[in-house]
Amino acid sequence: MLLHNQVYNYIMKKIQDEEWPVGTKLPTEIELAQQFGISRPSVRTAMARLVNEGYLNRIKGKGTFVTSPKELEDSTIFIESFDKEMKKRGKKVASDVIEFRLLKAPEHVQKMLKLTPNDTVLKLTRLRYIENSFNAGPIVMTTSYFTKKLFFLQNYDFTKISVHAAMAEHDVYRRRLEKHINIAQLDNRCCHLMELPEKSMSLFIYSTVLDSDDELVEYTESYYPASRNEFILKLRI
Hints:
It is a single chain. By secondary structure, the chain is of the alpha+beta class. The protein has helices at 3-16, 29-36, 40-52, 69-75, 82-88, 107-113, 163-168, 188-193; strands spanning 56-59, 63-66, 93-104, 120-130, 140-146, 174-185, 201-211, 216-225. The strands form 2 sheets. The chain has a 6-stranded antiparallel β-sheet. A two-stranded antiparallel sheet has the order 1-2. Helix 1 packs across helix 3 and helix 2 (29-36) packs across helix 3. It is globular and about 60 Å long.
């Protein structure tokens, strides 16, 4: 059994047996690491998984607490990654890289990633297609900004590999993702790149990503043209 699974199963049992009801403050990462004789990163991985699943809630400066998954489901909408969603539908994804370079972090990116004006980020802009359906046009245009920790991504060809797979090769994983959903009118550049009429509307999703060390490592903006996408939300009630 993987080390982090030991901690995951232990915490889950405590929650399911109601030994740790909602509101219970968990032991610290150091305490759990000492208890199981494993490293803090392994403990952190287990706790990040439980946070993602809605069983735990981290409050900065206070600790980690048991929460209610149902409350999380009622108030949060999850939209999976483009790659995962297409795989579920049995479709393959193709990408066209439009821009891939280092640059000084734009002001709004500084804010989202908590950077300074002098910090550099790696920018990656891609048009994503359904493979063998290029004539239908891009399904989404995505621009990602990566912090220095992920600069190793410069060595990859993202027409052949996903960002997730490239990160995994360096044992870096997305552990916490926060997405915001809006409606936006595409500017002329976006319309041109996506082969759409001027002033086309899109679903605009922007997100920040924390890795297993709880560090902000990625900020992404994605535009899904309304004429080419349909989102179905299935909620448990």
